[in-house]
Amino acid sequence: MAASIESAPAASVQGAVLPAVAWALARDLKISLRSKAELGIQLLFYVIVVTLFPLATTPERSLLAAIGPGVLWVAALLASLLSLSRLFAADHADGTLEQMALSPWPLPALVSGKIAAHWLTTGLPIVLLAPLLSAQYALERDAMWILTAALLIGTPILSLLGGIGAALTLGLRGGGTLLALLVLPLYVPILIFGAGSVDAVRAGFSAGPHLSLLGAGLLVALVGAPFAAAAAVRVALD
Amino acid sequence: MKSNGSPSAMLEGDGLAAVRGRAQLFANVGFRVDACQTLFVTGPNGSGKTTLLRMLAGLSTPTVGIIRWMGNTVAPFDARLREDVAFAGHLPALKDELSAIENLVVLAALGGEKVTTEQALLALDRVALSRQRTLPARVLSQGQRRRIGLARLALVNKPLWILDEPTTALDSDGVALLTTLLCQHLDANGCAVVATHQPLSVPRFANLALA
Amino acid sequence: MAAHWFLYASPASFYPIAGRMAPWFAAAAAALALVGLWIGLVVAPTDAQQGDAYRIIFIHVPAAWMSMFIYLVMAFWSALALGYNTRLSAMMAQALAPTGALMTFIALWTGAFWGRPTWGTYWAWDARMTSELILLFLYLGVIALRNGIDDPRRADKACSVLTLVGAVNVPIIYFSVKWWNTLHQGSTISMTAAPKMAAIMVTALGLMTLATWGYAIAVALIRVRAIIVERERGASWLSHLPEVRRLVV
């Protein structure tokens, strides 16, 4: 009797990591692309913040080139934070997150897919805009490319670490502000190595060590963060 | 008042208790659900029906007590339970941005069931939503959203259904549809736990009344 | 043996033990601090280069050590809480967080007061001071997350996850800040060059460190008792306690 049911789901999906990542990624991308306005707003925020700094300091080119990488990085952190609070919030509110946690797919893989979608829709545009915004800050060509490369390696870490914070603060009062408080200190190393790589190039050194360390950080975050975020999602549902 | 259950219990609860804040919702709740059987959970508002159902689905930890699925004690988010459970809570898990059919395909895939568009269409047809298939979920009524949920249950082929107030927002046709689907599920050796105020006519059932 | 330990892992059995231990640690902390401060502030000679200002290290250094150590201990309890789902471990982590934040704050505050006469500035972007500041942010983050969650069980688990993520990050943060600091050698203030210390100074520092340990343990025990009473309100074992019965009557 019950045995017939037990044998029914022959194609178990318990260990299927990649299809789970793909499912979450495809779904989140589809939803994001249907609400493009939100993506635009987030990117605009980034551009405006970057534009404010010269107005608040000086248009002098040498000083701008000195603070430019840092400004672009800090703006990237803030822009990433702005969208992070919504990473799980909508799914939490409409019950999809429950279904994800109860689905036979591995939850860390589903969470990874969501984080990947977050990076593609918020991190990648920031990376692509970096060469353009570097011009505002009178960065040399070398510095510009290193900055872009550093952002390319570093912004996924922002999404990964931020995913943990977003899951921890799900449904809490003042969730967005709390998220910033939890996540920003964790971003410090990324900021240092990311902005530092450009400083190194401008000072005539190689940016290799910085970028390698960022890459190592990315690997650690890739391996660890989805599990921590999945644990946090389960805690939030309990 | 258990019906003549088969000896092989599918889902069992033993000495379950729940505490919300400082209030004890329920204590020492025990039951067993056999194949082909429905357990109706009844009780006044705030008696802990939703809490109990969330425990059984594996979403939250009982304060005290044990839940067994197919004879195995299961912890929250247990892989064996996740493989077998279809949970329909208060929240519809629908995305406003996606159409009815897209929502259904996505949800079925999440349940581990690879569904073609034709199959999904058929399922929508069964719940009388095939005309609304391309409409975004945003514009559907509450009842229509519920019906997508029913179509999902029919698609995902899970032995354990856990339904929290499934009749909410459904019209009489919808309730009849729910009953039919539930009966088919039970006929296929499935079992169900249903929290409801409105009795559904299924052949074999037991009642669990929370005070 | 394992069963023995799990016995103490129950709040009901730990509550009276904590109550018995706390006064001893508090008394030891007070006695050690008195002797330590007396040696440090009165007996120890004035430093040739730094004058009397150096005496602030008798507070500063133990606080800084304690601030980092407490985070480690919190991470240990958090790991236990997540791994074994023991309530008491999470309560211990919760009880330690404010003390850790306080130690971090004291270390920063006294560091600034030491920096002013020694290097002419309250704040320098020194690697240690910067990491200490970020450590303070981490502590405050854990405390804020705890306060933001109403359900204590969820708060326990969420704070444990955050503490562990932070613990993985602390060495990375320290390393990155140090790296950053060595690259920007413009402001060459090195806090590592501690003054050569006489034996008497080391004695005072040791006593003050022990005093800080005693204080942290005593306060954590007292706080964990308060947390137990708050969480277990309504439990029968609690209502039999003389101090609780006195309150109820």
Outline the structure in words:
The complex is a heterotrimer of chains A (238), B (211) and C (249). With 238 residues, chain A is mainly alpha-helical. In chain A, 81% of the residues lie in helices and 0% in strands. Chain A has helices spanning 2-6, 17-34, 36-56, 61-84, 89-94, 96-102, 107-136, 141-168, 175-183, 188-202, 208-237. The radius of gyration of chain A is 20 Å and the shape is globular. Chain A starts with a helix and ends with a helix. Residues 1-6 of chain B have low confidence and may be disordered. Chain B is globular, with a radius of gyration of 17 Å. Chain B has 211 residues and is an alpha/beta fold. Chain B is built from six helices and nine strands. Chain C has 249 residues and is mainly alpha-helical. Chain C has one domain (24-248). Chain C has helices spanning 2-8, 11-43, 57-84, 87-119, 127-148, 152-183, 199-231, 236-239, 242-248. In chain C, helix 3 packs antiparallel against helix 4, helix 3 (57-84) crosses helix 6 (152-183) and helix 5 runs antiparallel to helix 6 (152-183). Chain C starts with a helix and ends with a helix. The chains are: A mainly alpha (238), B alpha/beta (211), C mainly alpha (249). The A-B interface holds A 1-2, 4-6, 8-9, 11-14, 23, 27, 30-31, 34-35, 93-96, 98-105, 107, 234, 237-238 and B 6, 8, 10, 35-36, 57-61, 70, 76-77, 79, 82-85, 87, 89-98, 102, 106-107, 109-112, 114, 157-159, 188-190.
Summarize the model shown.
Chain A has 238 residues and is an all-alpha fold.
Shape of chain B: globular
Mean pLDDT of chain A: 88
CATH architecture field of chain B: 3-Layer(aba) Sandwich
CATH class of chain B: Alpha Beta
- Listing every helix as H and every strand as E from the N terminus to the C terminus, the arrangement of chain A reads HHHHHHHHHHH
Helix vs. strand class of chain A: mainly alpha
Strand content of chain B: 25-35%
| Termini separation of chain B | 16 Å
Q: Report the helical percentage of chain A.
A: over 70%
Strand content of chain A: under 5%
Give, in spatial order, the strands making up the sheet with the most strands of chain B. Answer: 6-7-8-3-9
Number of domains of chain B: 1
Number of strands of chain A: 0
What value does the Rg of chain B take, in angstroms? 17 Å
Radius of gyration of chain A: 20 Å
* CATH superfamily (homologous) name of chain B: P-loop containing nucleotide triphosphate hydrolases
